[in-house]
Design brief:
Shape: globular
Number of helices: 4
Distance between the termini: 22 Å
CATH topology: Glutamine Phosphoribosylpyrophosphate, subunit 1, domain 1
Largest sheet: 5 strands, antiparallel
Number of strands: 12
């Protein structure tokens, strides 16, 4: 069994019209045993930038703390928030730095850049970036997420439709993966607001 599958996870980010959504499941398990049903995989860096970390939960928490530290240093020095593209490069550099003893994490980064253009990206454990114009997925449920997102995604969705699409894609995908599930956590981010929703899913 891969160490990436030890805790189970499902993560997806999707772009809309001047907005984006990022969603994850809420299960924390040790292989097939469920430990918690309210695990937070998605974290806010600032109002227009979010990161989701799938993979080994302990590494995800360590990596998140390092990223927050580095972002705060940037804010102090530059007196502004980091752009999503810059942040993606920072995450990539931190992961590549540890390539001989990597963090067992697959990050998903989503943010609004210049002129509120949505930016999404994912990378592997040593920081090789994969950029996309529509959606990115990570975690043990990624195979079924690819299929669900492929069939449901439409370009230029408004925030309400984007929320509906990403929620349906997430819930239908985690039903096909025994290592993730127990509801979902969805953030829909527009230039003016951040909407956070907890989804109820199958509890088995």
């Amino acid at each position: 069994m891969s160490i990436f599958e030890y805790n189970g996870s499902a993560l997806v980010a999707m772009v809309g019209k001047n907005c984006f959504a990022i969603a994850s499941d809420r299960r924390l398990g040790v292989q097939l045993q469920t430990i918690a049903t309210d695990f937070q995989r998605i974290s806010k860096i600032h109002d227009k930038l979010f990161i989701g970390l799938s993979g080994l939960a302990t590494d995800a928490q360590t990596l998140y703390q390092r990223l927050v530290f580095r972002h705060k240093l940037y804010q102090l020095r530059e007196e502004r928030d980091m752009k999503p593209e810059t942040f993606a490069s920072l995450v990539s550099a931190i992961l590549y730095e540890k390539r001989f003893g990597p963090y067992f994490c697959q990050p998903v980064i989503a943010g609004l850049g210049d002129e509120d253009k949505p930016f999404i990206c994912t990378m592997d454990a040593i920081g090789a970036k994969e950029l996309a114009k529509d959606f990115v997925v990570a975690g043990t449920a990624s195979e079924s997420l690819y299929g669900a997102c492929e069939s449901m995604f439409k370009p230029d969705m408004e925030p309400e439709e984007l929320f509906e699409t990403i929620s349906q894609a997430l819930l239908s995908s985690v039903d096909r993966d025994c290592l993730s599930g127990w509801g979902g956590h969805v953030y829909v981010v527009t230039p003016t607001e951040v909407k956070e929703t907890i989804l109820k899913g199958r509890m088995d």
